[in-house]
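Q: What does the assembly look like in three dimensions?
Context provided by user:
Components: two
Sequences:
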Amino acid sequence: MLSCHIKGVRNGYPFIIEVGKLAEHEADFDADFLKHIFPRINWPAFLQGAQAMNCREGLPEEATEALLEDEGFQKTFHHALLEVELEEGALVCPETGRKFPVAKGIPNMLLNEDEC
Amino acid sequence: MSATELRVAEIKHTHWNSEVYEPSDDTFLLVDALQEHAPTWAKRRPRCVLELGSGSGYVITSAALLLRQLRPRLAAQVLAVDHSPAAAEATRRTLQAHQVSEVDVVVASLFGPLAERLKGSVDVLLFNPPYVPTPDDEVERGGIASAWAGGHRGRRVIDRVLPLLPELLSPKGELFMVTVTENDPKGIIAEMQPHGFQGRIAASRQADEETLSIVHLWRG
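A: Here is the predicted structure of the complete assembly.
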């Protein structure tokens, strides 16, 4: 959901995810929530993130709203979207290579003065 | 279930330190307003809830707990943003102490990197701004002062956020924001009307040295 906001950066999305450590936790399953969030997701970017976070398996190359009726897809999508978290690592801007560190699951997106 | 029976965060499970704003009258008034309002979420079904300046995490934890108590159940994307790493860490610990794992915490200045992707999707925005009238130069001084120093009329930070609302909030989006009399809460509501918002004062309370009001804006 984040994009690089350094002034002048045009292709700051999606971030490249550098994994130090992943965390998994169970999240309540809600098919309506998946339907709600799906249109807001850039699928190729999501796949790239899932690949980096080791939860891409079972996710199709392309996804359409029709797939959301499929229970198997729902489960895989739910898991990748909500249950796998980047605990330690970094988000790297695809254009500038600027790294934003992630510690204890919290990305630090603050910019230096010369980046604003 | 009546609003007052709905569970919110507990102060004994809330974390803060000398670098993080301690939950105070303003914090509690905001949560009281949310607790009273939460039953309407059963119909409105907010799917994206964001708190700007989450500090100790007392408010966003309460919001997440209120959402959990809706019936039928509702899953939502819940985000907490603070520009202070110490505050973000306090938020994380407070969430964890309440076993709330569905909230994502981000360190950023205002909406920072979220603005672009969240455009038009925030259903509930919670904001306890630095509202205390101070000399303008205190606003940017950093540290704990940035939790309360609001500059001229206490409006410096508030006035940076209000213009972002029309783009950020979803068609059913609403804002709950803490103000004091010096911020001119009724004037804020009037100013937002031409931008398609209706408003009311959702709660008011006389605290030690200030009169607090919760401004509730929604698209009408």
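Follow-up: The longest strand of chain A covers residues 16-24.
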